[in-house]
Amino acid sequence: QHQGCQEASLIFKAQNNLSHFPPQNWACWTQAGYDAAATGNIAWGTGTSGAFTVHTSYGVSGFIEDEGPHNTAVGHRAWFFMPGLTRLGIGSTNTTSCMQWKDNYTSSGPSPEFIAYPPAGYMPNQIAYPRWSFTLPGGANFTNANVTMTDDDGKNVPLTIVNNPAHQPGSFPLRHLVWEPDMNPMHFMNDRTFTVTITNVVGAPKETYTYQTTIIPVTPSYRKPAPGDLGERIFMTITQ
């Protein structure tokens, strides 16, 4: 538990509002809470249980999912997958959450060839969210990058690229190429393997990257939230 994040979450709860920079006239304001809010992932939800809660493990999965039209750059997810991040501090109430990365970030440590979500290998369908992403530890220019996905039968999976950032060396967090495949893994009844190929990558060790992700059907059925449900969980975007 992170004390600053706990104080930030209390500020949001007491004020019934959310901000990376809460003003001093907000209820229960503290400097530690302000600092944590300014350098962490923050969320506020109206639910106290179920899919739209933002505390404990639900908060972690919500930040990684990065749902909503304001989060197409997956800035919250990007912080979680920064190479050199050793730990995450957390603080929450039953409806608010703050996760701190700044106190535990170091530029040292091993770096993978690439960072993808869902990653190469196996992934339960419960956490194979609609928004897929890819980046490189050294940064890259994805302005003209193209993404193709094929299924087990070699058929193309329709997809939409929603974020194709330019190269920004030393950016924090790393910029991600983001796309949304036209499928719902929560409906899968069997393991499904997808081959992802990313081409026209500029400013990176390679121009083309290919990997495979196998989605495992842990939960074979799912009621997709109605459009009105999305307002129940609110995530602030990271300034990038």
Describe the structure.
This protein has helices at 3-15, 31-38, 56-65, 75-80, and strands at residues 40-45, 89-92, 96-100, 115-117, 121-124, 132-135, 146-150, 159-163, 177-181, 192-199, 209-216, 233-235. Helix 1 packs across helix 2. It is 15% helix and 25% strand. The strands form three sheets. Strands 2-3-1-12 form a four-stranded antiparallel sheet. A four-stranded antiparallel sheet has the order 4-6-9-8, with no helix packed on it. A four-stranded mixed sheet has the order 5-11-10-7, with no helix packed on it. It contains four helices and twelve strands; from the N terminus they run ααβααβββββββββββ. The two termini are 26 Å apart. It has 240 residues and is of the alpha+beta class. The longest helix is centred in the first third of the chain and has 13 residues, at 3-15. Strand 2 and strand 3 (96-100) form a beta hairpin.
Largest sheet, strands/sense/barrel: 4 strands, antiparallel
- Rg: 18 Å
Query: What is the helix/strand order?
Result: HHEHHEEEEEEEEEEE
Helix/sheet category: alpha+beta
The best one-word shape is: globular
Helix % is: 10-25%
